[in-house]
Amino acid sequence: MNYFKKIIRFAKPYKKFAYLNIFFNILYALFSTLSFVALIPVLQVIFGDNKLITKKPVFKGITHIKDFAQDSLNYFLSDLINEKGSFYALMVMVSVIITLFLLKNLSNYMAMFYITFLRNGVLKDIRTNMYNKIVSLPLSFYSEKKKGDTISRVSGDVEEVRNSILSVLEMVVREPLTILFSLIFMFFFSMKLTLFVFIFIPIAGFVISKIGKSLKRKSIKVQQEQGFFLSILEETMSGLRVIKAFTAEDTFNKRFSESNNRYYKYSNTVLNRQNLASPMSELLGIIVIAILLVYGGYLVFIDQSMQASFFLGYIMLAYNILTPAKAISKASYSLKRGNGAAERILELLETDNIIKDAPNAINKTSFDKEINIKNISFKYEDELVLKEFNLTIPKGNTVALVGQSGSGKSTIANLVTRFYDVNNGSIEIDNVDIKDVSIKSLRSLMGIVTQDSILFNDTVANNIRIGKPDATKEEIEAAAKIANAFEFIKELPEGFDTNIGDAGGKLSGGQKQRLSIARAVLKNPPIMILDEATSALDTESEKLVQTALENMMKNRTSIVIAHRLSTIQNADTIAVMQKGVIVEQGTHQELLNHKGVYQKLVEMQSFE
């Protein structure tokens, strides 16, 4: 129930629709009950069961209200039959019943009309909050979670909340009130008979709760398994080239089939338990109806303390309780199942974001002096990737980080941009710790070209303008020219308006990388971070782009991470890294003269 309460908080902006829904549900419950009560005078006319009363009844106090109501009804029918005849009286009562059913169904439609806005509004806000959370969470969160599981929470779990928890909102007022109004009239007709109904309600509730006890636990397994096979699906689509190249289709088919079979088994268990709610509650209801028929028959035929028409009306009211009772029992099952989905949704929404702005974070709009990396240590898991690392990057300088894979070069880029936070030490920009700078303003000072070209299923122009949404066509074209991308873009079917497909799948590796460079150039930041920026380019394109990048970096502070040492020979400082520490530092020529690690790296690449 705690998860239900937390999900319902999203309904607050739509409370006016909730109030309107409650109002029309009250009307629905009232008209639903009255439509059955109105059958009693019809039965009296048909069976000739009404007592002939010629004198208008007098109200003798609340204790005699039942007799007054019965006598008033009989007086009305007697008068109507005497004046117009039995058939006319029947037509009048049938017209009343039709009107009541019309009002009942109109109220039902209006209640559902307004609850639709509430339900869909809540779903919209939950999805929006989940997406905002997904975007805001640090990269470390996704290194531990499967993508498919996150996708499953946004799609499958939200849909489950719609089908279960939010469907309960439709009946939370209507069904209990229908039962309440029916019970009031049933008490009015016969207190003895109604006691049987009160015995039935707790017994039915106990049986239903016993059946649904494990439903939440089972439903969580269903949603977790859905997340797992969605992860397999996402990995399959991303790595299809590798799967086919290594003829691993059978391996992945087996993995997916095993997960799908588990999902099939868990789903059957959950749905079969849920499907038991309706027939179980109906069976229990019919048992009570049968008991009422036996005892009521005794009151009509032997005790003769109850009119047959009132007894039949009573039975109809008792049966009128069964439908909402069945709906409530099904809703209790849905609530248990939906609680599992709500738990997974709230787990994501309530995940603490460890990378966030300090309470009094400043907005830094310029870079004036230097970047100081002071004695930092960092680890992704257990082993330190950087150990008491120190480096100063003056404004306007190009600093290159070189070394073997796993030496910590790309980690520096991740820490400077605050994709991760250092474990010890600090990183400062103009003597201000980057933890005291707002994340948005910090990253606005930086342009990044990643080792892997990350593009989106959109046009060339929209991919380039991500960092500057209001860029003009001329600015986009200028950035493309600097990145040596203009010529191949012009040859695309629709030029800059060409859609490049999922992850830029319609382009070659070199073309994708040049678009990434154009994107960083257009942003025009004072600090540029190039993480293997030319790694996917052919030799000719690499030389052209390298020249363009060097021209661009003349007025910027640049951190260049490179394996190809030929691309960083003009750097102001080259830091050679090994196992998270700097082992050599200096210009290209100084390091060559030193005849140390850097010279060996140059010699290893000299054949290229």
Automatic annotation (TrEMBL):
GO molecular function, one term: ATP hydrolysis activity
Cellular compartments annotated: Cell membrane
Any one annotated GO CC term: plasma membrane
Main location: membrane
Start and end residues of each ABC transmembrane type-1 domain: 77-337
CDD domains associated with the record: ABC_6TM_MsbA_like (cd18552), ABCC_MsbA (cd03251)
Transmembrane parts of this sequence: 20-47, 85-103, 283-302, 308-328
Superkingdom in the source lineage: Bacteria
Pfam families: ABC_membrane, ABC_tran
Keyword Protease: no
Keyword entries, A-Z: ATP-binding, Membrane, Nucleotide-binding, Transmembrane, Transmembrane helix, Transport
Lipid bilayer topology: Multi-pass membrane protein
Zinc recorded as keyword: no
ABC transporter domain: residues covered: 371-604
UniProt cross-references to PANTHER family, sorted A to Z: ATP-BINDING CASSETTE SUB-FAMILY B MEMBER 10, MITOCHONDRIAL, ATP-DEPENDENT PERMEASE MDL1, MITOCHONDRIAL
Protein name as annotated: ABC-type multidrug transport system, ATPase and permease component
Protein source organism: Galbibacter orientalis DSM 19592
